[in-house]
Structures are given as structure tokens and as C-alpha cells.
Fold each of these.
Amino acid sequence: MKGVRVAAILFLAALVAASLLAGFLAPVSYAHQFRDLPDAAPSHQHPLGTDDLGRDRLSRLLYGTRVSLLLAPAAALLSSLLAALIGGSAGFVGGWLEAAVMAATDLFLSLPWLFLLITVRALLPLNVSPVTSVAITFALLGCLGWAAAARVICANAHKLCGSDMVLLARATGSSGFRLLWRHIVPNLMPVLSAQFWISIPVFILTEANLGVLGLGVAEPLPSWGSLLRELESFSTFSGQPWHFVPLALLILAVSCFHLALQKQEAWA
Amino acid sequence: MKRLNLISITLAVVLGGAGLHTQAESQLRFCIGAEPKTLNPLLVDDEASDTVRYLTGGVLMRLNRSTQQLEPELATSWKLGRAGNSISFTLRQNVRFSDGTVFSAEDVAYTVERLLDPALHSPTGDSFRAGTGKVVTQITGSNQVTVTFPAPIVGLDKLFDQVAILSSRSPKKEMAVLGPFYVAEDKAGSYLLLRRNPNYWKHDAAGRQLPYIDTVRLDIQQNRDIEMLRLVRGEIHFINSLNAEYYDKLAAQAPGMVFDAGVSLDAEQMWFNQVPGAPLPTYKKAWFSSTTFRRAISASINREDLARIVFHGHARPAVSWVSPANKFWFNAKLQPHPFDQKSALQALARDGFKMQSGVLHDREGHAVEFSIITNAGNKVRERMAAMIQQDLSGIGIRLNVVTLDFPALIERITRSFDYEACLLGLVNNDLDPDSQMNVWLSSAENHVWNPNQKTATTAWEAEIDRLMHAQASALDVNKRKLAIDRVQEIAWQQEPFIYLVNKNSLSAVSTALNNAHPVVLRPQVYWNADQLSLGSGASKGR
């Protein structure tokens, strides 16, 4: 099992490296439209063929991987930090604050957040570059995705506050910020870490869902979500297997994340 | 033993009879995208209900979707009054509704009365509302009726194509119909079954009563992929409207099933926000209200490429707000704006724009960058926007493409005016350009680039206002044509809407369906529903 996990981590590392080196590995610009070659089959010039507008699929896949694979962890980090801040302080302080925060969290969890995301996105300024737009989209995902993690962290913080370890720390004079920083936070790290790793594939899939709805990353920037939109039509199934490469990569990446974070979950 | 034999024989007869019956009954099947909102023909305002109305409703005259000419139906003849506010019909005699009730002039009077009843809020009736005052219906004979409106109505006769005549006496009310079929079964959310009207008045040349088909099953199916699969499997007989992608896929599998009827009435277009109070920087408002700027953008878009790549060749560069498919009203003198970025840059340079390091700047030094909004989830428009983005980068303009969910988009273009440019399509069902008064009058709400103007902001908008009013009050169709031609010329010169492409009308028809002649006007395939037949014997009529 350890070998599988190592292989998964290596695959993810290779994927991240390939996306970071997209500028060198991509045969052409991801945005350039070869208008004489729309929807072309794989060739020497375009190893994965071209899309409907004649854009090189391999280049788009590499840059799309960069967008999805780098910004999803950023969003996961943001949501984990928010979860730590909100859930951790609620669990640490306890009492009415914990009850109020948990009620707010429950309310937040009950919101149809895909629609919330669509609404918030519609209110954003229009004249932003695709890169800014994708950063905003993932920032929104991060801002909206903290609630479930906050519940877990609050419960763990609450449990820690009542533990013998914290009781001993209090008995030795630790209190307030020192107690939180030296004793609670370090013990919450495994949970936070697990929440962070769990969130990454969730955000990748959420962006893909938004992409399928046409509300993902703005043109011409690619992402896994926008690349997956080509699979909307059943007719794609017939004789164009290279269309499935983004889907295969998404499945592999998400599976690898799950394999890689098994140890994290064990810590949690 | 004898008893057993008797049962066997009885069963055989019953089953055999059933088999014969099944074989004899022909059922046409196709999909509609949604449940019809109403079965009352006067309240129709959605496509599914319109389908049912078309197949069941008997009308006084019908616009032949192929020739685009009016043809007599329940009215054998009609005459428009000199003032343009009245119409007299001579009605067909010995016609009965589907339930056997006799059709008479009272039914026409009743239908007009119901149609214009303010309490009913009939969307079809809205087209007939002109001036203030009462609509008077006079029955001048057993088969003569005259309807007089308070004010002249442009294209009055053509409007009756949409008016299904109701029975004034039938206990079945609007379910008693004069069209080729009647609604026999309505399974909510699943299907509608229409059955052949036994009293339908039409006969073919050989004297056989129409329609040929016994039943029509309308399956409610939103998913276009499933609709395609069902067509390929032979479970449905046609798809009325296909997109170019599906057309090509199907053409590869079954070339005999697809049909490209040519350019349709629908257009894809973009426009700039010219609302003076819009929350945009002043310099951008100046760009958008400049004819030179709009024309330069128009000349920098490769429409041929849009038609070839996005629509797989099943579209053609658009010229005007009237499609070339509209045989009478299209101004044939106009040609599509050519793709010419060099000329566009020269024109922009004359207006003070200059290129610096590959980026276009205006005379005040602002880099030319704007956003274009379109509805999310529409792959065709997203592709068009991406192509326009690349085209405009060729003249140093950065275009940001923003896809919004439809309500948010409508909010921006109609209320907040917080947008710069918009890419949308225009679905047009009406041949008469008078139906676009609500777009071209500067005071109109749908004058989207700058709606609800108290007085026309520009001289060319004032001229369009004058011409549109003139055509609306002219009874001579040739005078109307001159006015509409001129409006098309002005729109071509000023480009408040930058027309991009007119899509072709694409459909798919099973080889089992005979007499199908798909056309560009809706309903493309079943416009001659009463003459369609099933079976492999007859010619397909293509």
C-alpha cells in the first residue's frame, strides 16, 4: 500500500512539474487558433489533436493542469485557514460563541453554494483578465468552502480543550494565546492538514462543474473544467478517444490525491 | 376440448385483429423540449404549446412555410378594408369541429372576442391591439364575417395564421378543434398523444381525407443527446431543429436523414452599450457611440471563419436585421461587411486611435480593452466569443469574455446597464419586420444599445424612428418595403448591432417519413403535418 501511495505522490509531482513547465513543454500557445485545423486528430504537430477552434489540445491540457492543479491547493489553503480560524476559535472559546458559530456554519452548509457561487460571480466586475478571473473564481471557492472543515476543527479543538494535556498545561500556568499557540494549534495540525488535502480534489471537481456549466475559467485560458466541456455530447464517444485525456487525467489526479492523503486521514 | 379450441380461436381473432389494427394505425413520433404550458390556443407563448396549437388548431388562413405566401384555410377568401383596420372573411362551409360541432361565423366572432378579451391576456391577441376603442365583429351572412379594429394594423391578414378558431358552442371548449389532429391524451411530464381529427375538412387530390397519419406522439424530452439517440434508433421520426455539431455527426452516420434547408431567420449579433447613464468610463462611452469604432470592430471580425468553424459551414455571414431567408423584406443590395483589419486600423487611426507596442490606444492614451458578455452554457456563443477575441487581438484590442447565467445577463442589459458589449442571438419567427418595432424605435424597451429614449439621441436613430412609423402606417406594401430597405441600410452603415452570422435551418428526418420538405420557417419539418405519411412506399419528397 505504501508503494501505491508513493507512486501516487510521484505521479502528482510529475503532473505539477509538467504543468509548471508548460511554457517549455507546450508545442504552441494554448490560445492560438489554427483555423484551418479545427477538431483535428492527433498528429506530429498536435500530439493530442486540436479542439473545435483549432487550438492545440496538448498545450491547453498542460496550461489547464497548471490552472486547476495550482489554484485548487491555493483555494484549499484559504478554506483550511478560514476553517482553522472560525472552527478553532469557536472550539477554543466554547460556550455561546461555539453555539453561535456552529449554527452559522450549519446555515452556511445548508446553502446551495453552487448557486451562491454563480450569484457572487455574476456580481463581480466584468473587465478583468482571464488570469484574474480564474484567481477570483478559486478565491471564491476557498471563501465558500470552509464550513465543513470548520465543524471538524471546532469539534477537535473542543475535545482538545477538555483533554488532560491541556488541563496539565493550564495547571502549569499556560493560558490564552500561549495555550492556543503552543498546545492547541500544534495538535490540530494533522486535522487541518487532512482537511487541506481533502479539499484539493473537491475544489478541482467544483471548478470542473463550474466549467461544465460554462461558468468556469474565462476564455481563452484553459482549465480541466473547460476541457471537460468537450465531453458534453454523447457523440464524442464515437471514435475520438483523445477527447478523454483530460477526463482520464482528472480521475487519475483525484485518485492520486486520495491515495496520497490516506496517511493524513489516519493522522486525523 | 371444443371449449378450449373456441377460446384459442377467439384469442387468435382478437390478437390478429389487434395486430392488424396496430399495423394499420400510423403514429408519428417526435420530441418536444418541454411540457406545453397551455392547451388553450389563445394563451400560447412557449414553443411546446405552439407545436400543439399548430397541429390541432384550424386557422382562417395559413402562411405556407415553403412559399411564404398566405393560403386559404377555413376562410376561402378575405379582403382587407381600405383603411387597413378591417378584414372581411368568406368562410368555408360544411366544416365541423373534431367533436362534430358545426363551424360557423359565430365561432370566428367568438374567437376574436376571446382573443381580445383584456381579462384573458392572450399573447396572440397582443399583436391585434391597435389604438383605443372596441373591436367590432359583424356577421354579415351565414359564412361572412367582418372584423373592424379601432386603428390600422400592419400585416393584419398574416396575423390570423396564429389564431386557432374556437368553438362557441362545443361543451369541450378549446379542446374541440378544426386542425388535422386533436389532443387525445396528455400524460404530464411524459407525452401528449394527438389523434387524427375525423372531421378534418381537407382532402388530397385523390379525394382522400387528410391527415394520413392516425396519431402523433409528442414525447417530452429536454436532452438533445437522447433525442438524437432515439432518432438513430428509429424511435422518433424527426428532429425539427439540429445544431451544426449534431448535424455533422448524424450526417456521418446516416447522410440520408439530415437536411439543410438553408439560411434561417435567426441571427447571432453583438452590440455595444451606448446608454448615456451606464456605469462606464466616459472614454469607453465615447468609443462605443462612435460609428467608426463600431464599424472597425465589425470589419475586424472574420464572419466567414465564424460560419465555417463554429457552425461547421451551416451558416453565412449576416448582413442585416432582416435575414436573406425572408424573401420579400430582405434588402438584397446589402452585402456582408468584409473582413479587413487593415482598413479598420486606418479608420481608427483617422479617429485618433494609434497602435503602440501591439496595443491599440485611443487619443487620450487609454489602451483599448473591453468585455463582452454572453449567456453561460451556450457553447456556440462561447466559441464565437473566443474567435472574436482572437480577431480583435489582431488590431491590438484586448477582449475579455465573460459568461453569465441568463438572469444575471438580462439584469445587466436591461436594468443596471453595467456591461460593455453583449453577444446574443435573435430568434425570429415573424416575417413581417413590423414585429421588430419594439427593437428599432428609439423609445422602445428592446432598443437594447440605448433603450427608452425620450427623443432619439442620434440623427440616424431619428430617421429610423420616422421610417418605422411610416411603414407602420402605410398600407401599400411596396412603400413599406422601401422604408424597411432604408432602415436596413442605416443599420448596415451605423451598426448598432454588429450582425455576425445567420444560422442555417438544420433538421433530421427519418427515411420512414414521407412528404417531408423541411423549410427555414418554423415548424421546419411538420409545417405540412396533414400531408405527412409513414411507410417506405412513398417518395420522401426531398
Amino acid sequence: MYQRYPSLRLGSVFAMSIKVHARDVSRTFHLRNDQGRNVALPVLDGFNLDIREGEFLSLLGPSGCGKSTFLNMLAGFEDFDSGEIQVDGEPLKKQDFNRGMVFQSYALLPWRTVRSNLEIALEIRHVPRAERHKIARYSLGRVGLTPFANQYPHQLSGGMRQRVAIARVLAYNPSLLLMDEPFGALDAQTREDLQLELLRIWEDDKKTILFVTHSIDEAVLLSDRVAIMSARPGTISEIINIDLPRPRNEDIRGSAEFARIRQYAWHRLKHEVTRPNEFNGGEGI
Amino acid sequence: MVVSKKLVDLTSRSTGLLAFLVLWEITPRLGWVKPTYITPPTGVARALWHLACTGELWKHTAISLQRVLISLALSTAVGVLFGLFIGYFRRVERNLDLLFQAFRQMSAFALFPVFILLFGLGELSKTIIIFWASLWPILLNTSTGVRNVDRVLIRSTQSMGASKAYIFLHVILPAAAPEIFTGIRLGGSYCVMAVVAAEMIGALSGLGWLVIYSQDTFNIPDMYAGIVGLAILGMGLNYVLSWIENRFTRWRQNVYAGE
């Protein structure tokens, strides 16, 4: 049965405020290099991160530092070699009804209409058809795409497709949202529109969001905290608190405080990028 | 308006065919080739009409069609099932890859003597040769289709909590459908080719038999009538299979038309 999951569980008041708890997580990929020799590529090494309940946290780091790897672990796509990850105080599960992911490439099923795409997760949860339609219509309304319910994804622009993908996750109301460079494939104007839209949606119910991005600007605008990752093997090198007032809008980009935090984050990131690194390239690892 | 546009479209598509028919008609008539060996289209049409009137044409077409459809149904069932299985379990696919590539290259016609040896000269060996010829494109296309499903579609559905069964039925199967149908259409045309060979060797009925028997008895117009009949049979089958394919994969054509 479909239900809104209560995020508060009695008896674990202390653990409750931590949504995701990652300790000493390590992961090494075994690849074949140009010479055909097997090489071990440590992607994450002693990775620690706590994500608080209801916070918007961005992961920022140099290419190939393991941001996406960590996200994929949380999504249940990827294993880790050692360490532990807990969600809501329990070990990470491969299959979980309570988490949602938004991909850079939208990942809409092209043979389904927009509305039918929104109903996938509800189908999986055996929600009755009438209720599915109702929920889908409501979610589509939240991203302002109600008139497009019966269109197919290829009939929409990139920005609209990503709105549908966000609505699709909102439809089943997961308590943890994972976003893997969701606006990375969009043009600058659409990207800014969607950033503000995401802020507006997030303000409604303050779900926990882990947001992976390459854009410092985006990370600072959206987040409560920005975690800077070191070059591979990735660890968190610094967490920056973003004390900008909420609710935020586009004007905040012009403020002195925004510029100051942005500058600081840029310096920290630059430090990581220019550190000598044995392996280079390989984004997506 | 729409009708005339369709007519223009059909006319322009038939240009090559019409030119060929004209050339075919005049060369024997002008004596450029021996009319004894090459019957002009009007003569072939007359022969077809005659065969249709005596009921011979329908009898042989029905038998050939029946052989094709039975074998195609079998190869579709076996090919799609195994293709899905092999495409889904990559390790199995890797172990069987070389074997299948070898089987695919092994001509059904070369194997016909083997089938006759094992299954005799009856319907069974004919069914098996047609089945063999059409199995491989269906099986290999299906497994490629499954293998090429965009991983991000699978992952996104998985992240919503989907079971493996749901992902297979609602993501992998529809995503692979276009390639599966291409395989079936390819298999269909291989069937029509193989049925001719099967009927030419050891059969007493079917369009392929009609062709070889007419040549043996020097009834050249009937021979051409049989060849034309086979071409029409092949085109008809392809048309029906494309129609089914379009119905099931309409979203895909729109994707390409739109972008």
C-alpha cells in the first residue's frame, strides 16, 4: 500500500537527525590500462560523510574523484569494499522504496507518455489506477507541466524532460533524493530556471537531497552545506556551511556573501584539482 | 488530397519496377532474347491466371505459406526465448557467442542433406531447414537488443524500488522490442528463401516445387509464374510483419521522425 513514510522513528531520537551515515567507505576498481596490464584504481578511500535529515547537501569535486561512485552506492547500484553506510540508522539496502534518483540524462522511458512515466514507481507499489492518475497529475502540476501529460518524452525539450524526471521522483515521495548532475546537460538559462524551481519544490517539504555537481555556483545557491572532495582516491576534504538566508531566489547571486562563499569554495576546489594525481580523466568513475 | 498524394507516392516508388517490366516485356518480343527461355510478363500473367483458374496456384501457395508460417512461429518462439535468456545473462552470452556465430554462418542449404539423413524426406526435415535459416537472425537480434538496453533506464527503474521481474517486463522487453521485431522480419524473409530450397529438393508440392517441376517439364511460363508467386509471397509476409512491428514500436519511429 502506498503511504507517506514517516521519517521519525521513536526510540532513536539521536540517530534520527542523521539521514545518511557513511564511515570509512572504500572502493577500488580493477581496470586494464593501455598496456593491457591490470591496475587497481582506488576511487574512494576512507570516505566519511554524514548527511542530516532534511538538508540539501552538494558534493563538489574534481573530475573522477568518486562523487558519482558514492551516489551510485547510495542508490544501490554499486558495492563498496569496506566500511559502512547507514540510511536512517539501518544498513544500506539494495532495494528501497524510500529513495529516488534524478539522472543527468533524464532516464525517462521513451515508449511511455509523461503521465505514464510518472506512474512507474506507483505501479511498482501497486497503487490503484485512479489514485495513480491523481498523484501523477498533482506531481506534474508541481513542475508546471500539466498540459503535457499525454506527450512522449521526445516531444519535450531537455529542461521539460528533467522537470518530468523530478516530478516522477516527487510522485512517490521518497525521503532521500539523489541527484547526479541533474542540470549538467542543460543550457545556461534553462539550468538557472530549474535551479530555482528545485529550490521552490524543496522548500515545500525539505526532503534530504544529495546533489552531485560540477558547478560551484549551483552548489552554493542550492545547498545548506557543500562537501568538497579531494582528488581520487576521494575523501571529503572540507565541508562548507552555506549560511545564506532562505528562501533563496536569483537575487542572492548578486549578494556580497554569495560572492565570498563562492570565492572560498573555488579556492578550496582549485587546491584539490591542482594536487598531483597519478591517474587522470575517467569522469563517471 | 490525401488520396492523390498517396497515388503520387506509389507511382514514384513503382518507377523502377515499371521500367523493369517494360524492359522484360519488349526484349523477348523484339527477339533480343529467346522467348522460349524468357517469357514476357504478359505471358507470365496469363500463366498465373491459368494456374489460378485450375486451383493449382492456391494449392501450392497455401502449402508454401503453411511451411513458412509453422517454421517462423517455431523459430520466433525459440529465438526470442533463448535470445532474451542469453542477452540477459551476459556470461552465458559470452560462452555461447562463438558457437552461435559459427551456426549462423552455417548455411541451412548445406545442412539439408544432414536433416534429410536424420529426419527423412517428409515435412519434418523441411520444417527444420526453414526453422534453422530463420532462427539465427531472430535469436541474435533479440540478444543484442537486450544487451543494448540503456543502462540508465534500468537503473532509474531500480532506484524506484522495482523488482528484477518488473525491470525485465517493463524496461528490458519494451526497450529491446524494436530489435526483436527487426530480427523476426529478417527471419521471415530467410524463411521464404529457405522454403524454396526445401521444396526444390524432395517435395511434391509448394511454389518451389512448381518452379523446379515446370523447368523440368519445360513449361517455362509456369516456371516464371512460380517465381513471381514466390516474390509476392515474400513481399506479403514482409508487409504483414512490418505492420505488426509498427504497431508495437510506434514510439520509436516518432523518436526519429521528431529529432
